[in-house]
Structure formats: structure tokens, C-alpha cells
Sequence to fold (670 residues):
Amino acid sequence: MSWEHTDRPRLGLKAAFPGRLGFLGRMRVVLVSMWCKASGRYSLIVLAIWILVSLVSRFWTPVPIWTTDGYRIWQAPSRTHLLGTDGTGADILSWLMAGSATNLVISLLAVILSGVLGLLLVMAMVSRSSGVSQTVVVLVDALISLPTVLLALILAVPLGPSIAVVVVACGFGYGLNLARIVRPQALLAAESDYVQSARHSGVGSFRIFCTHLVPNIIPVLCVQLSMSAGTSVLAEAGLTYLGVGVPSGLPSWGHSLTTSVKFINVFPLTVLWPGLVVTMVVVALNLFGDALRDAIDPVTNPRFRVAVAASGRSALQSERQTPSAQSDDSGHHVENAIHTGEGGR
Amino acid sequence: MARFLMRRLVLFILALMGISLLIFLALRILPGDVAAVMAGLDAPPERVDRLRRQMGLDRSYPRQYLDWISGFLQGDLGRSILTNRSIASQVGIRAQITFPLILLGLGMALLLGIPLGCAAALARSPRMQSFSHMAAIVGGSVPALWSGLLLIMLFAKGSGLIGLLPSQGFPALGWAQPGQALAALILPALSTGIIVGAGIMRYTRSLLGDMLSSGYVDMGMACGMTRTQAALRIGLRLASPQLVSVIGLTMAEMVTGVMVSENLFALPGLGSMLVTDVGNRDLPAVQSELLLLAAFFLFLGLLVDVVHRLIDPRFRGVARQEVAD
Fold:
């Protein structure tokens, strides 16, 4: 790129905005602002426990999951079996802990798949060629009414029940959904002046998408992706119950729900726990998206301004103490950045 | 409108063809010889060959596909491998349970979702607002299986805490006994309706909230309506096109819940039939049922788009497609 038309040398990001927060600094602001709201705090705690338990369960569960005891089936909660045992004498708590790892993997993979697919579709939807964009829009409209469970059933016939069936079915369905919801935002950004000017200065469309469109759709993306994670937990439970989800040897929350279904009238407690866990996690995922959206937006989140101003002030001070390379000009930039609160973007 | 309809219809057919190909190929990758399995373990090879010819499995894949599709279009869905009964008649019987169940579930979801969503949007006190927000989120986070189980524990006749409604099976005479048939469907419909209703409540709340902050409701209030009146008469009406498309989508997502509750409440509907056939690897049955359901939902999507267009006055008399999106 050439900068001949400006008479002053181009400043790097750090020099132009001494108050600019690094990645860790921004993460800290986001986490703190989420923690300060009740819903955000709940979701952070539940998700942290979820991840921690999945990691721990790889190495340790209170009772090894394959330990069954024919003399101790359908036990009430006790010291050795904190949540009781199920119809084979296996420890319910251990199975729930082991299942959380499976569900974490499924949710993560489904979110990644749907995110990638959704972003690719959005990229095609805002493409300059109207043929491509119209085709993709109409294609998404036509395919979006296909239920996830039908796709899972189609896949389950050749593949048998497996994690892949759940992940692909969820990822595909939620990806289409994501594209449809994100599209208006992306179109709005694609018609904005800064995208026009970037385009006219010769920036490629992929780069424009990454640097200008993606930041604009991040709020919607946060909400949708974390909702997709929640829905994939629900879908896993449903599909596993229908026999096309996680295979029966693998612990998962859907599996825990399914095993005790037949005996609910006799042993209602065994059904209570897995359902409670699933509901709590899905609620947390739904709240997490909203909280993240509110916290991540540098324009509406006041904490960003405070943090940027503080870090800019300290940068300026250290600059004054060692007056060397920086010219007065960049100092002027800094004052502006702090004043408008733009430095954090 | 005509041009939009044409394009949408062409796309519907293309999507259906794509899906039918996908279904066909997915079922053909299946390892193992269906004819050999059907004929039995120690069947002579001639018998296997005869069966294979009878089922058309000796023909080339394109030929099989065309046979299947042309039969499908003429209403011949093939015969089940296991029972050798006509699939079309089976589907006809079972659809009498599944479609009323879907409609009843949707009705309950609408009855729960729209009034509660309106109330949530109109609520002024912050406590009420956050309570309704939480109610919508928690309601939408309950697995259909679990809500069904809780409903059984609460309301099932015989074993529940408040024994009111039957929770297992469907009356043998079907709709000849309308009261009992309806009673058998209430709990399953409720268990699917709750989660969908929570979703609808959330959307209604956010759509109506947007409308409240738009100028239209202010205009209505300036003309002498109360806030509630203006929101319900003007805001809800303005939000209705988007609401319709959201409801169409949630209806598609409801199917998972419907299938789960059919199995849970032991209703012999399409969903439980499909799940059994997938388990049995009953190839002709599975492929026809999947295509039938896919066609139904693609058609539903088409219908929702058309209704969206019809009730949104901004599309009237406008030839170009991209206007208001």
C-alpha cells in the first residue's frame, strides 16, 4: 500500500492509539462486565463448572462408570452414591459427569460447524454478484424449513447412531439459521461508507469481510452461536432418546435421561437429575450469549471507555516522562481517541 | 407476486429433488445386502436373487431412483420389507395422530407464547420484565423428554400426583371416540408446546418491544388509544409478518419434540413409525417416509413465505423482490 498522499508518516496502531487495549486487556474488560451482572455471573459459573467437570471426568469420577452392582440398583442418594444409582446399579453422578464431556464436545463441534457454514453463507449472501447472493438467499429460505431431526434420521441410516450424526445435523441446521438472521446486519454494513471506501482503495472482498463485516455481526453471532450450543444439548437429548444420537455405550446427558425413562413412576428421582443439569446448562448458554453481546460491544459498554481512558492516560504519562521518538502529532491523536472513546475498537 | 411464487415454486421442486437424491444416496451407502438379510440366514442363492429382482435392487442406481420417484409421485410409496404392507396406507393411518398432535401443540404454543409475550413487552416494572425474560428462557431450555416426564409425573391418570389425563397410548377406535382421542393428545401436545411457546414468547416480546419504541405506537396513542390498545392493535399487527415466519420455523423445529413425545407417550404416529423403521433398517419404508416428511416441511416453508408476503402490505404492488428486508 502506498501512503504518498499523506505528508505525515503512517502511525502504527499502538502509536496512533497509545490507550489501545491488547487482547488480554479486552478479555479482562469483557469478563469483568459479564461478572457484574447477575445473569452473566450465573452463566460464567455454570459454564466454568461444566468445562471443569468434563476435564476432571476424563481422569476421575466418584465411582468408575462401568462399575455396576446388581444388589444396589435404584438406590436413593447416599454417602457413596451422592445421587443414587440407576437400573444397572451404576452411579448416576458419575455418569452425569462423564456425560458432560461428551456434551461439551458435541456442542463445541456443532457451534464451530454452524459458525463456519453460517459465515460462508453470509459471505455469499453479501457478494457483489447478484446471481450468487440471490441464489444463496433463496436456497437458504428453502432449506431452512427442514427439521434437524429429519436430517439426523437421514444420516443415521448409513452411519448408525454416532456423535457425527448429531454434530452434522445440528451444525447444518443452525448454520442456515445463523445466515438468515445475520444477513440484514451484514447487508447494512456492506453498504456502509467505510466498506465502499475500502473497496475503492482496492481492498479485496475477503479482507473486507473479515475486517469490516465480521466485527459488525459479532453481537448477533455471540447470541446465535451460544443459543446454538444450548439447542444442540437439547437436540442431543432428543436424538439419543430416539436412538439416532449418541450410541448407547457412550455416557451423555441424553443417555442418562433415556435410561431411566421407563421407570419414572417408580423412581422419579433418577429422572430429576439429568433433566435439571440439562436445563441449567441450556439456561446458562442462553444467558451467556446475551451477556457476551452486551459486554463485547465497545460502543455501548461503558467499561471499555473507562479502561481505554485509563490505559491511554498511563501511556501518555510514560510518554511525557521519556520524551523521545513520539512527535506532538501523535499526542494529539491520543487526546482525540480518549475523547471519543474510539481507541478500544 | 406471480414472479415470486414462480421462483419459490421452482426452488421448492429443486430442493425436493436435492433432498430426494440425498436420501437415496444416504440409504445406498448402507453396507450389507438387504435382500440377503431379508431372505434369511441359510436361504439358497436363487431365493436371494429372486428377492433382489422383486425389490428392484438388481437395477442400476439411476433406474432405481427414477422408479422410486415416479412411484412416489403416483402415490405408491412402496412396500415395507418387514411386514410387506403398503407404506401409503400405514402412513395414512398414522398421520391421523401426528398431524393433530402437531396442530394441537402449535395451538398451545401460540396460546402460551403470544399473550405472555405481549404481557412481557408491555410490563413496566423492571422486576416483572426480568421475571418474564427468565420465564421465557427457562421454558425454552427444558428438554422435551424431561417436560414430558414431569407432566406424566404430575397429571398421568393412575400414577401421577393429580391423576387427570391418560398418558399412554391412543384409543383403539381412534377419532371415532373424539373425547378420548383428544384427551390422549393433551399431555404430549403440552410437552412439545411449552418449549415452542417459550420461543414464540421470546420473539413476540422482542418484536413488540421494537414496535413500542417505533413511532407507530406513539402515533396511535396520540390518536387517543391507550398504550396497551395501541401496542396490541397497531404494534402486533405490524409485527405479524415476522411473527408468521418465526412461527413457521419453530413449527419445523417442533418435530423433534413431537417425535420424542410420540415415543414417550406410546402414540402410534408417524414419528414413532419412522424411528422404528430406521432402527430396523427398513429401506423402502424409511426412504419414502423421509421424503414425505421433508416434502411436508419444505411445503410449509413455502406456505409461510407466501403468507408473509400476503400480509405484509409493503410487498403489495411491488415488482422487485428486495424491498423491505
